[in-house]
Structure prediction request, 550 residues.
Amino acid sequence: MSRSAHVDVVVVGAGFAGIYATHLLRDKNGLSVQGFERGSDVGGTWFWNRYPGARCDAESIVYSYSFDDDIQQEWTWSERWATQPEILRYAGFVADKLGIRESYAFNTEVASMVWDEEAGLWITTTSDGETTTSRFVVTAVGCLSASQVPEFKGLEGFAGEVYHTGSWPHEGVDLAGKRVAVIGTGSSGIQAIPAIAQQAAHVTVLQRTPNYTVPARNRKLGVDEMSLIKRIYPALREKVRETPAGVIVKPPVGAALELPPEEVRAELDRRWEQGGPTFMNAFTDTMSDHAANQITADYVRERIREIVQDPEKAELISPQAYPIGTKRICVDTDYYATYNRENVDLVDVRSTPIERIGARGPVVGGKEYEVDVLVLATGFDAITGPLLRLGVQGRNGLSLNEAWAEGGKSYLGLAVAGFPNLFTVTGPGSPSVLTNMIVSIEQHVDWISDMLLDLENEGIERIEASAEAQEEWIAKVNAIAAQTLYPETASWYMGANIPGKPRVFMPYAGGLDTYREICRQVAAAGYEGFLTSGQVGVEAHEVLATVPAS
Ligand code: NA7
Prediction:
């Protein structure tokens, strides 16, 4: 546990981004680092999301760091899709190996971060009232870490236990013999419901919007398989880095609308059997053409009707209202089949919304569903939410909340105009949640580390995204999104799950491979689009023109 009054860099968050940022900036750049983490240990998302059935939906062998060969050779994954406990153990293993914890103050929440223009320093104040000044700030707060609890009337009067999936008790919850209601059927609900149904006496699922989910086909990874993977790790990582989503993908076989129907069907069958989100990658036109999208969506609906015995339930859990993939595709183990269990009921809260939470349970259409435990799988204030709660104030007293009144704006998802020397790992406008987060995190942190080295070499103390470059980047992010079906759907990608949140498609949908190249070019051009303040109005690339690209 550490606490310094002044450092070179403050890193906020000790998830995968914070661990790597702390390691690189401290051990490669030679900067002093103070980390802050509101949890009691490392792990980020995986520290908080401990609900039954929590698992990663990127394959474990690539949902892991690639920067250190010792780490990837020493660690052995046991399953194709790692469970939350295994991923958390992995985060702890890496933190131990790199001595990360010694740079962090845990159980310490950031209350505000204020830029002192005169001193050229960030002043970070934490919930205990202490302050730390730093030249730079790196936010590593994750994209899905601000839990969203809808304003249900009467929730505080519920006599039973209430848990949000995103802040599940560390000691676990004994659900044996209990009656449980689950609100929410996004990824978290879809993972939790089958696991809860195996423990609880009875589960009532309150579904507002059914989601598309594909089978995970999880399995153990054998010793031989893992040793083969370790032998080919360097090449595998290289390949994965050059894919649009940073995952192991089977390339599309063509456009669904151009292939013979029997080939389309055969490919969907193959991918359904193979399991995992690569199902969505079967064709080139699924995410850009309604008719193509419908082919894949119809296929999933057909599989639901095959699996779910009660036709009424099958109909109710079949998504109809939006194109497949425009809400994040879910990956499940026995989700649809769980509705064949006698102890699972489904309540449609689309046609009749939840009226209130009574003392004994949720009330829908005048009926109180009596339960002992209420599970809120109701999602997150995604991407911008975790940043906005840091109380960030930049130049001229501009708060991040004001700067983002119309939605999260940044240059490359990495830096925000008006906020010098502050870098956002996987911020709005970066590929982030459309990719394997660890691959995106490594790319961002490598880039930030290289940039700070270049600045150091040139004796430049301040850097900031220019407002013009930011506007251009946001226009590009929007233009790319407009070529897809994403913006049509009210999803958390669009901020639509949070009342009053501006509706903008937040991630960059042009692919991590393209994005990586753009970032490389920006650096090679002397950090084009960034201003070095102290020389306000001077484009960084004019100053850095002679710095070799890293
Ligand atoms: P999501 O995907 O945002 O899902 C939240 C769910 O909660 C979704 O089904 C919502 O229905 C439902 N919800 C939210 N508010 C209400 C109210 N008031 N009444 C009924 N139902 C409600 O969050 P997850 O945690 O599952 O997943 C987030 C990401 O984390 C996931 O994509 C992975 O990347 C990891 P709605 O769809 O809004 O009608």
User: Anything to note?
Assistant: The pocket of NA7 is lined by residues 144, 150, 165, 183-189, 208-209, 328, 349, 354, 377-380, 492, 497 (CB under 6 Å). The chain has three domains: 6-42+100-146+382-544, 147-212+325-379, 243-309.
